[in-house]
Amino acid sequence: MLRLLNLELQKLLLNRASKVLIFISFILPFTVLILSSIKINFFGLFTLELGELGIFNFPIIWHITTFFASQFKFFFAIVVVSMIGNEYSNKTIKQNLIDGLSKKEFILSKFYTIVFFSLIATILIGIATFCIGLYYSSYTEISIIFRETQFLLAYFVKLVGFFSLCLFLAMLVKRSAFALGALFVLYIVEWIGFGLIAWQAGGDLAEKIQGFFPLKSMYNLIKQPFQRVMMTKFPEKTDMIYDYAVHSSDLFIVLIWTAIFVFLSHKLLMKRDL
């Protein structure tokens, strides 16, 4: 595993564009640190500081930061599709196989890289969240601080699942731009499918079935936290209550999709004459 991971990291770090995108994908999520320190002065009448609104209290901060950070996953997605696109355009995929790398090892090297960067991103977000929470949170009890750290697990699984999908699409179309376009097409197809099911069987059943779609199942891992923030400010409004928790069933669905995408990527490579 380490040999394959090291091989792939060498390729990425020798590519200037990949290094820049990796740097951006790691740095941008940390803009939450900047948001936590923003102070807005309203014409000298009063100053609004986001950190003082309670949104960085434990345990809700785990939800907010992981949701916010997951919005920047597209930058590393470009790196993932480029890993495959460059292999085809530069003919290095054939050279790797000639040099003794099996097709299975080729796919595994990409997957190990995905897991590695997802793990690093999760650790960094975890550290940043912990530090912001310690500074702003009104709650310092250990049981409260670590109550919802399952959002970190959801964040990690979400990244691995999404990047595995990007890997499959890149293997399918062989070109980076087309793979990103296919990702957008899949998003449209999922919503068209949801609309057709809702038209035939009703909205409730359509929502349940939609939860098994690749992109929607990944989104369900970390649902939007804005409604939850409003719930803390207006607890009497029971109509705002919704299920924001991380469920093991959602994790399982995304892990299944991840396995499917890696398996299909391997199958595509096995069938192609390079």
UniProtKB/TrEMBL annotation:
Residue ranges crossing the lipid bilayer per the database entry: 20-40, 60-84, 111-136, 151-170, 177-199, 244-264
Keywords, sorted A to Z: Membrane, Transmembrane, Transmembrane helix
Keyword Cell membrane: no
GO molecular function annotations of the record: ABC-type transporter activity
GO cellular component: plasma membrane
Protein's name according to its UniProt entry: ABC transporter permease subunit
Species assigned in the record: Formosa sediminum
